[in-house]
C-alpha cells in the first residue's frame, strides 16, 4: 500500500495521543467500520486472559517473537463446533518449542485448556485456532536472557473455508528453502515462505514447490505436496528435511482405505526427483485448511491430463469426512456456553 501523499513534508506533524483512552477510541474507529470482525477472541499470557475486543488484540513490540523471530506457532481447524486434530498440532507445537529453546509458561494440559476455553468464548463454529509460544517481551537484544518469562498467545479467526475442487498452477521456487533444522521446526521465521508465495503470484501461479539441494521434491511454502503415480500409488516426500504436516500424516493413515477398495495400489513416502514428480498422473497440496488442493499445472506444463484427478478428489473426500465425522481422538467438541 502506498504511503499517503503529504503536500509539504516540513509541515507534516505526527499526532501525539494524550491518553490511552484517546488511543483506544482511535483503534475502535478502525474496527467499527468493519462489517464482520475476522477475529472472535484472543488469549494473551501477558494480559493473563481472553480478549474479545479486537482493538486490544495486540502484543508488545519488545516481544522477541516480533523483533527477533524467536517464536513458534501452530494451527488447528474449527469445523462445525469441533476442534480437529488439536492434540496432534499441540504435540508438534511443543516439539517445535523445544527445538527453538522456548519453555512454555504453562504445562501442556493448561495450554490445551486455554485453547479450548478460548474457542468456546469466541463462539466461532468454523475457522482456525492459531497459537504461538514466544521467548517473551523484555528488551531488544538477541538473547532472551533479559525476558522475565516466555509468552503464549492464541487467536480464533472466523474463516469460511470449503473443500477445494478447482485445480491450481504452481512454479518451481527460486527462493532458497530453509535448512532441515528450521524447516522441521514450525517457527515464525517465514520470510522465505512469503517470498516464495509472492514469487509464484508474480508469475500468475497459486504457489510454488521447493526442491532440496539433492534435487528431490521438498514442500510448498506452507503446505506439503503429494503425488499419484501412473501406477496408482500415493507418494509423499519423506519428512526428514521438511515439516511433517499433521494433515499429511493423517492422509497417510486414511489413504489405505482406497487401497482396500482397489482404487489405489499403495501408499508410501519416498525421495522424488523433479522428473518423477512432473511425470506424475496427479499432484496436490496437502494442508490443514485445504485439506487437499489439486495441482494441474507446474511450470506451465500440465500434470497428467491437466485436469483435477479422480484419486485426488477421493483423498480429499476422505479427509473432509474425517474432519466432519471422524473419531473422537481427532475431533474435540467445544463446550460453547
TrEMBL record:
One of its GO terms (molecular function) is 4-amino-4-deoxychorismate lyase activity. The keyword Transcription does not apply. Coiled coil: none annotated. Pathway: Cofactor biosynthesis; tetrahydrofolate biosynthesis; 4-aminobenzoate from chorismate: step 2/2. Its cofactor is pyridoxal 5'-phosphate. It catalyses: 4-amino-4-deoxychorismate = 4-aminobenzoate + pyruvate + H(+). Its EC number is 4.1.3.38. Pfam families: Aminotran_4. It comes from the Eukaryota. SUPFAM superfamilies: D-aminoacid aminotransferase-like PLP-dependent enzymes. Homodimer. PANTHER family: AMINO-ACID AMINOTRANSFERASE (PTHR42743), OS01G0238500 PROTEIN (PTHR42743:SF8). This is aminodeoxychorismate lyase. It comes from Ilex paraguariensis (yerba mate).
Amino acid at each position: 500500500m502506498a504511503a499517503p501523499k503529504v503536500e509539504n513534508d516540513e509541515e507534516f506533524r505526527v499526532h501525539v495521543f494524550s491518553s490511552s483512552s484517546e488511543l483506544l477510541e482511535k483503534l475502535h474507529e478502525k474496527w467499527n467500520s468493519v462489517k464482520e470482525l475476522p477475529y472472535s477472541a484472543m488469549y494473551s499470557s501477558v494480559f493473563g486472559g481472553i480478549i474479545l475486543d479486537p482493538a486490544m488484540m495486540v502484543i508488545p513490540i519488545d516481544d522477541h517473537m516480533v523483533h527477533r523471530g524467536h517464536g513458534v506457532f501452530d494451527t488447528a481447524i474449527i469445523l462445525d463446533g469441533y476442534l480437529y486434530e488439536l492434540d496432534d498440532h499441540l504435540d508438534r507445537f511443543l516439539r517445535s518449542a523445544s527445538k527453538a529453546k522456548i519453555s512454555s509458561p504453562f504445562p501442556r494440559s493448561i495450554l490445551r485448556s486455554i485453547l479450548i476455553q478460548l474457542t468456546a468464548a469466541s463462539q466461532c463454529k468454523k475457522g482456525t485456532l492459531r497459537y504461538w509460544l514466544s521467548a517473551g517481551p523484555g528488551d531488544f537484544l538477541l538473547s532472551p536472557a533479559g525476558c522475565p518469562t516466555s509468552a503464549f498467545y492464541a487467536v480464533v479467526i472466523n474463516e469460511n473455508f470449503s473443500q477445494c475442487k478447482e485445480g491450481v498452477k504452481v512454479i518451481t521456487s527460486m527462493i532458497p528453502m530453509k535448512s532441515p533444522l528450521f524447516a522441521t521446526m514450525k517457527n515464525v521465521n517465514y520470510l522465505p515462505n512469503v517470498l516464495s508465495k509472492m514469487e509464484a503470484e508474480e508469475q500468475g501461479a497459486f504457489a510454488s514447490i521447493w526442491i532440496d539441494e539433492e534435487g528431490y521434491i521438498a514442500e510448498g511454502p506452507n503446505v506439503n505436496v503429494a503425488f499419484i503415480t501412473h501406477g496408482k500409488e500415493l507418494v509423499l516426500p519423506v519428512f526428514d528435511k521438511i515439516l511433517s504436516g499433521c494433515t499429511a500424516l493423517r492422509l497417510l493413515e486414511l489413504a489405505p482405505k482406497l487401497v482396500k477398495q482397489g482404487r489405489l495400489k499403495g501408499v508410501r513416502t519416498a525421495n522424488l526427483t523433479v522428473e518423477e514428480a512432473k511425470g506424475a498422473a496427479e499432484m496436490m497440496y496437502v494442508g490443514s485448511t485445504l485439506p487437499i488442493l489439486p495441482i494441474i499445472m507446474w511450470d506451465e506444463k500440465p500434470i497428467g491430463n491437466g485436469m483435477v484427478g479422480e484419486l485426488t478428489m477421493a483423498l480429499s473426500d476422505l479427509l473432509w469426512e474425517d474432519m466432519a465425522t471422524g473419531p473422537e481422538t481427532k475431533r474435540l467438541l467445544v463446550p460453547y456456553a
